[in-house]
């Protein structure tokens, strides 16, 4: 039986703040690896959606991996997809083979990046969906926990101790946590990688402009066109899943997940979700107008480390994805990037993404036996 005492969180976004408070509040030591240690207080305050205040204490804060990584039993990456490989590379010299390394975002290519940087012998795990919806209130000091999950699921490679990890996270996060049968069941998600790009395409593609006279509410103003795009993209994703040797029921369709039957009911459901209230489209003010912010994670993460990964799996399996292609082509043009050309991932910017081919995964065996 393994005893986990110390968790090192890498990254300081909303999830980093919230997990630091929650884990330390439940009796475990928390270290923090951040690029901005001077901006952090050791005391973290989080207010949840029930107006409950969570007080946490961080034992050690540093921007130097050698100061916070070696003594950690669990290392938990709370960084966006475009920083996962960079973070793994930085911590690699200080990680022991017995340390469990995981990510709150598995869909960005974490498992193949970790194998590339740390070797296939390393213990690896990842959450299927993020544990919380969180927002920073005051950086390094406080955050809002906007919504809980009723259950958490984690997947791991053959070296990870999922039984012990599920027991740990059930206690540390005060949420029942169960193990998935295969790491792909954590990696392949139709959450943000489909949800955000589908909404952006559905919302903005009718307009030939990047500048608008209002800020759009991302979810509260969700429309049927966005639901139509999302349902079609998810149908293509589900066809990809059906070709893989995994338990497909672990990744339900978005209609199932949101307890909806059709376009209209999905629109109504997404508009009503309390944790989504007030979230706006990524835009920056320009005088009295608003311009789409292409530096936001909706673009820098959900396309190269989300939708493109799904597309790369489709290519591996020779599965056509016409709606996903349409969304990628429209968004990449506005990002001034080139990933997809005539259905193939050979654009000049594809090396900046998390697609499986970048990590020498060229067959189903390569993918399944990572």
TrEMBL record:
<feature type="domain" description="Ketopantoate reductase N-terminal">
    <location>
        <begin position="7"/>
        <end position="102"/>
    </location>
</feature>
<protein>
    <recommendedName>
        <fullName>2-dehydropantoate 2-reductase</fullName>
    </recommendedName>
</protein>
<dbReference type="InterPro" id="IPR013328">
    <property type="entry name" value="6PGD_dom2"/>
</dbReference>
<dbReference type="InterPro" id="IPR051729">
    <property type="entry name" value="Opine/Lysopine_DH"/>
</dbReference>
<dbReference type="Pfam" id="PF02558">
    <property type="entry name" value="ApbA"/>
</dbReference>
<dbReference type="InterPro" id="IPR003421">
    <property type="entry name" value="Opine_DH"/>
</dbReference>
<dbReference type="InterPro" id="IPR008927">
    <property type="entry name" value="6-PGluconate_DH-like_C_sf"/>
</dbReference>
<comment type="pathway">
    <text>Cofactor biosynthesis; (R)-pantothenate biosynthesis; (R)-pantoate from 3-methyl-2-oxobutanoate: step 2/2.</text>
</comment>
<dbReference type="GO" id="GO:0008677">
    <property type="term" value="F:2-dehydropantoate 2-reductase activity"/>
</dbReference>
<dbReference type="InterPro" id="IPR036291">
    <property type="entry name" value="NAD(P)-bd_dom_sf"/>
</dbReference>
<dbReference type="InterPro" id="IPR013332">
    <property type="entry name" value="KPR_N"/>
</dbReference>
<feature type="domain" description="Opine dehydrogenase">
    <location>
        <begin position="181"/>
        <end position="333"/>
    </location>
</feature>
<dbReference type="Pfam" id="PF02317">
    <property type="entry name" value="Octopine_DH"/>
</dbReference>
